[in-house]
Write a structure and sequence with these properties.
Structural class: alpha+beta
Largest sheet: 6 strands, mixed
Helix content: 25-40%
Number of strands: 14
Strand order of the largest sheet: 4-3-12-11-10-9
Oligomer: single chain
Distance between the termini: 43 Å
Order of helices and strands: HEEEHEEHEHEEEEHHEHHEHEEH
Strand content: 15-25%
Radius of gyration: 22 Å
């Protein structure tokens, strides 16, 4: 299995390591600065490199909780621009419940990923007589990696999804050229998978004494970044993409363009042409342990747009910018009416005890959603490596030393 990732010329580092002192909001990251800072959330990424370098794709698996099959999370969806797919979204909008793994992959692999979730569920939850009487609508999202990946090979197969579900873990999350982000393009550079988190202060439910205990809540994002043009790229407010473009233009006019610079300029131009044909898209998954109900989670998902716009996303017409937010705070039983059992009467409304946040108290959670989305995109770009892919198409990694030098003027 041959990899198309060019050997590293620079050690890849996350944005906070590249630009010490960068300011991305007022809330501190969690211990891992990752979506797995939200207790109970599990992640796995796998990359697929085949066919002498023309296949570069993969699968990202997010489990909202380990017992996702029987116990749902409250969730909400926001569509910034809808030229993309997220299966199961109608049911989430109908009920506000998420009881599926979240799979993120390439545009042509949605069907295989959907099948893979069912294969895993059948293997683990089919009854002794071989019956499937439960209800499940898989959640699969995609972005288009056809510039670096030969989509016609259908490299992602159901067994990759089964492996991802079985292998999802807590702990650090791989970023850059990994998972569903393996072959993605972002702001003229190699894009991919990125993550970040924020911790905000809050209050729990008041006790018998009327006092609410101090608590902290985590909001975290995982992105599959595959959108945008170079000249729109901004970092913490600095017009980095425009400055990179102008620097190359100055060198051209001064006849001071090295062979490496000329090749770099060509790659930027090719990436823009690829975005003309299919802008690409971004999927943002937001997780939190704050007790939000489905409408509040729809509102949280909308705030991913703020983080995306700070970096330079505009939601162009052919782009699929779809955001999902879920909360692990409440555990909602879902397999309560199946073909072989009924633990509730479907015609007798039964109450559940849940916690929900006061709408007037959730501004910091909104800020954290925007900030973690923004930083997750930076991490996807900073951790991604130069890749030569399908038909020899090449995407350069973001030049971290150039980024650091440019950013020093703005700090």
């Amino acid at each position: 299995m041959a990899s198309s990732t060019v050997p590293k010329t620079q050690p890849r580092r996350r944005i906070r390591d590249v630009v010490p002192g960068i300011h991305i909001g007022y809330h501190k990251p969690g211990p891992l600065n990752a979506i797995t800072d939200v207790p109970g959330v599990l992640v796995h990424t796998q990359s697929i490199h085949q066919n002498n370098g023309s296949v570069n794709t993969g699968v990202t698996t997010i489990l909202p909780r380990k017992d996702w099959f029987n116990n749902a999370c409250y969730s909400g969806i926001f569509r910034f621009n809808g030229s993309g797919e997220m299966t199961g979204s109608h049911w989430i909008e109908e009920t506000g419940l998420l009881n599926s793994p979240i799979i993120i992959t390439n545009s042509f692999a949605v069907g295989m990923a959907y099948q893979g979730i069912y294969e895993h569920s059948i293997a683990h939850h089919q009854d002794g007589d071989g019956n499937v009487g439960w209800f499940l609508l898989p959640v699969v999202a995609e972005t288009f990696d056809g510039y670096l990946n030969d989509l016609t090979k259908f490299a992602v197969q159901p067994h990759h999804i089964v492996t991802g579900i079985d292998s999802a873990r807590s702990g650090p999350v791989a970023e850059g050229n990994t998972g569903g982000g393996t072959g993605m393009v972002c702001h003229g550079h190699k894009g991919g998978t990125g993550t970040s988190s924020r911790v905000v202060s809050g209050l729990g439910v008041a006790g018998s004494d009327g006092k609410a205990p101090e608590k902290t809540y985590t909001v975290a994002a995982l992105v599959q970044a595959n959108y945008g043009r170079l000249h729109h790229f901004r970092v913490a407010g600095a017009p980095i993409g425009r400055l990179m473009f102008e620097e190359l233009e100055r060198k051209k006019k001064a006849a001071d363009l090295s062979a490496a610079d000329a090749e770099r300029a060509k790659h930027f131009a090719d990436a823009d042409k690829a975005k003309d044909a299919k802008d690409g898209s971004i999927i943002v998954i937001l997780a939190t342990d704050a007790p939000l109900h489905p409408v509040q989670l729809q509102r949280l998902a909308k705030r991913a747009t703020v983080g995306l716009s700070r970096v330079g996303g505009h939601g162009h017409n052919p782009s699929g910018d779809i955001f999902l937010a879920f909360s692990t705070a409440n555990k909602i039983p879902v397999q309560t009416v199946t073909a072989d059992k009924r633990t509730v009467d479907p015609f007798k409304a039964a109450a559940l005890s849940v916690e929900v946040a006061d709408d007037n108290s959730i501004n910091a959670l909104f800020e954290a959603a925007a900030d973690s989305t923004e930083e997750a995109i930076y991490n996807a770009l900073c951790m991604a490596e130069t890749m030569v892919g399908h038909k020899g198409n090449t995407l350069e990694a973001l030049d971290l030393e150039q980024l650091k030098t440019m950013m020093e003027k703005y700090l």
